[in-house]
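Whiteboard transcription, Tuesday session. T.W. wrote the structure tokens on the left side:
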């Protein structure tokens, strides 16, 4: 499937390796550089194994490529922090802006750039560890993070996050997989159908920072409470779609439950028939429709990451939470354990 020689290397003095996870129907490839999902092979409606996860063909391509988030574990704080500034216990902290004037996905060198320590206890589980030192990227506290990726018998890919700190800090971990359920390199994702179990979303300003409102999706192109194709309304005259260049918004999950988890989304590949359901303990999910993809990265299939040929659905607390007192908090204090 993938040549391990293209991925097994050394980055910043630490060994990087390609790890394989298997169950009866699924095969998942992960590298410990960025805690990154590289490929996921699942059977389509005809039983053909299809790689639904967009990725690069080598570790070097991830290190040097213009897009640093493909498949990566994102931290310390996923999504945007306005102007890279926030206050904790009366003290102001600054993160280097890396998304115009704002900080995105943990700053200039977030968790996607780190080599994680890895242990593989069995053929369907990988455990990754990374300790982020006090004031790395401007965040307070030594943050000890653990991510467990596992494949289960019901064909789930489980992502379990834990973190502890020795100073009050902020944490919002997620994964930034880019998906195309028809297969990597198969073209547009606009004909995929999508359900988001969300009655509200957080509208944004021109910098994609939430304005603090929870807006009802009813009667708008953001209403995916019943199935619509991603492209059905993406081009309509709507000020929020214009600001995002399409969908690049946080949706507020409505509490539809399945085994005590929020059922966040259902996506169906129009040609493959592959169905992906997303469940989470998080209160929100960021839906991104590939608006900034520009064919600048060659993928492992040989295709390019062309405009809107993949989408992301990132489970999360809401963007800019430290600066929005009405949003669920992402503060983590000593003695507490972040777990999701």
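and on the right, the sequence the group agreed on:
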């Amino acid at each position: 499937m993938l040549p391990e020689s293209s991925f097994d290397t050394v980055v910043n003095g630490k060994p990087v390796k390609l790890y394989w996870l298997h169950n009866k129907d699924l095969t998942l490839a992960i590298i410990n550089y960025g805690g990154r999902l590289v490929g996921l092979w699942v059977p389509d409606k005809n039983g053909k194994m299809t790689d639904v996860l967009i990725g690069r063909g080598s570790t070097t391509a991830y290190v040097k490529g213009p897009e640093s988030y493909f498949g990566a574990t994102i931290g310390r704080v996923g999504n945007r922090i306005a102007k890279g500034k926030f206050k904790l216990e009366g003290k102001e902290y600054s993160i280097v802006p890396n998304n115009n004037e704002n900080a995105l996905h943990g700053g200039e060198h977030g968790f996607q750039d780190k080599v994680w320590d890895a242990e593989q206890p069995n053929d369907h589980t990988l455990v990754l560890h990374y300790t982020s030192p006090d004031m790395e990227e401007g965040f307070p506290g030594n943050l000890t993070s653990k991510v467990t990726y596992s494949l289960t018998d019901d064909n789930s890919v489980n992502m379990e996050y834990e973190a502890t700190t020795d100073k009050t800090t902020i944490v919002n971990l997620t994964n930034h997989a880019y998906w195309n359920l028809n297969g990597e390199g198969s073209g547009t994702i606009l004909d995929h159908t999508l359900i988001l179990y969300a009655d509200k979303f957080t509208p944004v300003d021109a910098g994609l920072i939430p304005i603090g409102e929870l807006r009802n999706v009813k009667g708008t192109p953001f209403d995916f409470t019943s199935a619509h194709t991603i492209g059905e309304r993406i081009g309509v005259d709507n000020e929020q779609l214009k600001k995002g260049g399409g969908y690049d918004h946080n949706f507020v999950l409505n509490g539809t439950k399945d085994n005590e988890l929020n059922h966040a989304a259902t996506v169906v590949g129009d040609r493959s028939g592959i169905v992906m359901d997303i469940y989470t303990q998080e209160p929100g999910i960021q839906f991104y429709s590939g608006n900034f993809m520009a064919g600048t990265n060659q993928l492992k299939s040989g295709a390019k990451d062309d405009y809107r040929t993949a989408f992301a659905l990132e489970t999360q607390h809401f963007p800019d939470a430290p600066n929005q007192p009405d949003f669920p908090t992402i503060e983590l204090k000593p003695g507490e354990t972040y777990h999701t």
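Someone added at the bottom: DSSP finds two helices and 29 strands in the chain.
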